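ARCHIVE CARD
CATEGORY: sequence design from structure
SOURCE FIELD: tokenized fold
FIELD CONTENT:
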């Protein structure tokens, strides 16, 4: 099982969202701990992954050797890839 780490940037982005949406996003992130690669899609030209959660995307870095999932950013699909 992988452990989940959420960056300060992602925490700030989540805090701006309504509570019910925060719960949905966090539940989805924590639900992939057993088989993360089943739910993640590789970003082209990058070592990062994306997780689709309704209209939102979480940009994630996975350290397989340490069994860690790092959530780098969470935002609407229309804005998340601009960063």
């Amino acid at each position: 099982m992988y452990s989940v780490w959420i960056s300060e940037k992602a925490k700030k982005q989540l805090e701006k969202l309504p509570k019910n949406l925060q719960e949905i996003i966090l539940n989805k992130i924590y639900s992939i701990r057993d088989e993360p690669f089943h739910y993640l899609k590789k970003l082209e030209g990058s070592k990062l992954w994306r997780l689709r959660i309704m209209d939102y995307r979480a940009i994630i870095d996975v350290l397989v050797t340490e069994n860690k999932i790092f959530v780098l950013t969470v935002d609407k699909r229309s804005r998340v890839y601009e960063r």
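CARD ANNOTATION: The domain at 3-80 is CATH 3.30.2310.20 (YaeB-like fold). The chain has a mean pLDDT of 92.
SHELF: design records, drawer C
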